[in-house]
Every structure is written in structure tokens, then in C-alpha cells.
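for the writeup, i need someone to sanity check this before i put it in the appendix. the sequnce is what the collaborator sent (i think, or maybe the updated version? ugh). structure was predicted straight from it, no edits. if anything looks off just tell me and ill rerun, i have time this weekend
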Amino acid sequence: MLSDPRPQRDRGHACAWVPCDEAEARTAAALAGGRRPVNNAGAPSNRVLADPEGNEARVGVAGPPEPAADRP
């Protein structure tokens, strides 16, 4: 672990592609872990978050939502 913040921004960029029904929970977990929203323009299917040092991560939906069980 680094003791001082890195002087360079965005040295790494992670993308997590998750099923539609998991996107909200993954985003909430990232926010609870200290990330902050950067760009929610594509929400809820695509959100960009950043850690305290400015490194960005994306939580994106992989594929369309599953049809509800009670719909034909």
C-alpha cells in the first residue's frame, strides 16, 4: 500500500460488467467502500466512479435485463 497519494491520475481503470440485477448492489458496495460518482449520465446501465486518488472504475450492465417471471 502506498503511504502518499500518487501524483498521477488514473493510472488504472477497472471495468466491472455485471448482470442487470446486480448493478445497483455493486455500485452501492463501491460507494460504501469510498468511491464517489464521477459520471452517472448512463445510469443505471453505466456508471463511472472514482477512488480518493481519482482512479476511475466503471460499473456497466452486461446485456439486457431479464424478463420478469410473471410476464408472458
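Residues 35 and 51 are 4 Å apart (CA to CA). The chain is about 15% helix and 30% strand.
thx in advance!!
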